[in-house]
Amino acid sequence: MKKIVLMMLLMLSCVLMTEAQEASYKIIIEKDSTIKYKLNGITLGSREVRYIVYEYQSKDPKGNDATISGVILAPSEIVKGTVPSDGILLYNHYTISALDEAPSSEIDRLSGAIMCSPLKPNYVLVMSDYIGFGSSKDKPQAYLCGDTNARNSLDGLLAAKALMKDKDIPEGRFLFNMGYSQGGTESMFVAKLCDMEYKDKGITITKTFSGGGPLDIEKAYTEYVRIGYCDFVGAIAQLIIAYNEWYGLGLNYHDTFQEPLASHVQEWFLDKKIHMPQITKNIGTDSLSHMLTPTYFNVESEAAKTLRKMLREKSLMDTWTNPDTTRKYFLLHSRHDRYVPVQTGRVIIPWDQSADQYGGVQTQPRPSCHRVAYTDGCRHSALACTLLRGRSEPLLSQRGEGPQHHEGHQDTGELGHRLAQVNQYQIGSPAD
Q: Which pTM does this prediction carry?
């Protein structure tokens, strides 16, 4: 009898532990809201959503436990059960520098554009703030610390799935992992961690969309130093600061940066009150030689070696062992990107295969179903291409009819015209 009682108690404890694991979240805000997508002050679309800000447990770059916040945007039609859910869009946010830019603080332009699309995608959007924003705002941000932000994103997804289950919000069939700029890098690290650490946690990614991100951060930094400039020079400073704060590089900022940045690291970056365009304006140059001290242009200097060594240790491909070659990816980058060198996205492409040419777009499949496209437009046309691709292809692929090849498009210099061309190029028709 005692054995039976003990066995029943053991079984009950296992059930309670499982429920506790599934309910590993805390709701901070839950409300019905209307999101709007605006461009140049003009509202292009709106949608009713259930807006949920929640907290969950993850890790910081040092492996310590951390409370992270995230956001769930669920279309009201899905919440009410009037339309089925097609799936989840795990959205990895782009470069931000101020607390009020975090997903839990505002509905950013890209997520708003996805949800408010005329296509009305029936997907639930899940976004992590990453460490350094929202509930972890007292910590430095881990800018381009790939594994950390990817873990924050995946742990946020697991918590969101548990929350949605408790709220009877259906998950749907598909899971799309996407991001642009920093988010483009993080989406690939998410795919990497899914292969290496999250295989047994019930996460199966349908496809990963990665746009305009530095997939090889050391190569990106090396290219910046080689060419000597960057239109988004503040992001390079943010990268160096994040790696120094979290990985203990021991850099003295007055020995690393020139004025005026050297005296304003706390105010411009660590306080997280200023947006990146203003930071770049404050730095006052797009020249790295005017922002960094000469020692960082000497490849033999200890400071340069220390930084490059850490960038290499945290790289994507060198730490991605036994990748799942059945997963599908779509990568896109502008050939004329002055923010992120296009070479940094080529680290996963087998260039020994022949490429097909379709106007201004080059596609190159590989055995693991990867596809890469390089546009002749500016960085923002590539962003639009990724955005429209990310919100349209799921609607096609769920029927197994996604387009195989696409017509090219040219950069006209007019955003509206370019968007229309990209829209035509990306969406195609079910018969394509």
A: 0.80
